[in-house]
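User: two proteins, same treatment. go.

Assistant:
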Amino acid sequence: MSCRPGRRTVMCAFGAVCVDALIPALARSQAVQAPSKLKPRFRVIIDNDFGGDPDGLFALAQFILSPSIEIAAIIGSHLHAGEHWDRSLAEPSAYAAAKAREVLRLAGKPGAAPVIVGAPKALTQKDVKDLSEGVDVARSAATKAIVAEAMRSDPRPLFYAAGAGLTDLASAWLVNPGIEKRLTLIWIGGPEHQPPKTPTSKGPEPEYNLALDTLAAQIIFGRSAIPIWQAPRDTYRRMLVSFAELREVAVTGPLGAYLVEQVEAVGRLAGGDGMNFGETYILGDSPLVTLTALQSSFQSDPSSSDYQEIPTPGIADDGEYIPHLKSRPMRVYTNIDTRLTISDLLAKLRCAAR
C-alpha cells in the first residue's frame, strides 16, 4: 500500500502500512458490523428446557446477540417428570426461567425480553379437554403470552423456536387454534424419518424432546395446521463442537465462561454416572438460530442448510411416525450449516465482550 510523505504509518508483519489509507476501509467495515444499524426482520418466541442440557443456553445467548430478530418471549419449559440435571432445583420450569434470566444479565440485556415460566409438566387428556373448553389451568401464563404475540398485528413473520417439548405451544393452540395461521414452528426434536446412513442416532428408543410431551407433539403434528420446520435427531446430533472450540468460547468474556461452565458441570455429573464425553459436545439447539437469525440477505431463507419437504406425519404413542390422511407439507432439515452457526456464535461472543 503506497503512502505519501507526511501520512501516518505503522509496522506490521507485512512492513509499513499507511494508517490514513486504511481509515476509509475501517469505517466501511464498522458500518457493516454495527448491530445498531440492523432492524429486526423476524419475531421469535424461544421455548427451551434451560435447566437441562446446556445447549439451549448457547442458543439463547446467540439469539440475544442477534440483531436481526426480536425476541418476543422466552419460555422456560419442563423436563421429564422426576428428572433433575441440577440436584438442587425444586421445579424445572422455574429453574429454566432463572437460567434464562442469568444469560440475559451476562449478555448485558437483562430486560431485553419477558421471561416466562412454562408448564410444570406434560399435557394430560384432562388438560386437553380443559384447554379446549376454555378452563384456566396452571400453564396459562405461557399460553396467554403465545396467543397474544401470535394474534398481535405485526407484518414481520413470527417463529416459535422450540428446543424441548411442545407443551406450551400445544396448549396455546388448544385455547386459540387461530394461531396456526400466524406463526411457524421450528422444532429440535423427533426421531429420524428414515434409517440413517451414518451412526448419528442412538437407536429406536423415543427421541428425548418428543418424549417430554408426546401428547403435545401429537396435537401439533396431527391436529393443528401449524407450519413445521423440523430438525430431527439425526440432524441436530451433527451440531458437534470440540472442547478446543469451547475453550475459545470460555475466554471471550463472562458470558462465554458461564456457558462453558454449564457444559463442564454436566460433564462432572455424567462422570459421576460413569460416562466419558470424549472431546466433543452437541450444541443441538443451535439450528434454531441458523434457521431464523442467520437467514440469507436476499429472498430471506435458511439458504445454506438443506431440507426435504414431506407430508406431515402423525405421531404414535410410542413416538414413531405414522401416515396422516389430512396432511400438510412440512420441512425436515437434513443438514444445518455448522460452519456458519459456530463461527457466528464465537464472533458474537467476542464482539459482546469487547
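Protein 2:
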Amino acid sequence: MASTGARTDPLLGFRFEVMIESLPPAGFSECTGLQAELEVQEFREGGLNTYVHRFPSRLRHPVLTLRRGIVDRALWDWYDAIIQGDFSRRNGSIALRDPTGAQTMVEWQFRGAFPSNWRGPELNASQSTVAVETFELSHEGLTRTGA
C-alpha cells in the first residue's frame, strides 16, 4: 500500500488585512500590485553574434491598488494632506491569513508609501451596489515574510 504524505494546499487569497503606519487596520475587498520586476539590461558584445548578454538592472515596484467600500475618512485625510502640501510617507503591510483568520501565513511589507491616486465610487441610482473607492499607493519596495 502506498503511503501518503501531508497535503499542503495553496493559500486562499480572500482573507487579508492591510495595515498602514498610524492608521487603523483596514479591510479591503481587493488588493493588486504585489509585484516586483527586475529590469534587464542587454549588452551586445562586438564579434559575438550567437547571443546577447543580459544583466540585472533596477528593481521596479508598481503601485499597490486597494479597493474598498467607503467606511471612514482615514485614507482620504492622508491623501488630502499630501494635496495640501503636508507630504508624509508611511510603511505598512499586507497580511494573508489562514482560512480561520487566526494566523498570518504570508506578509508583504511595503515602505515609504504615499497615496498617489484616488478614485471615488461609480454612482448609479438604478443599482444597489456598494460604493467602492480606490486608492493607489506608490512605494519604495516590498519584502516578504512567512510561507
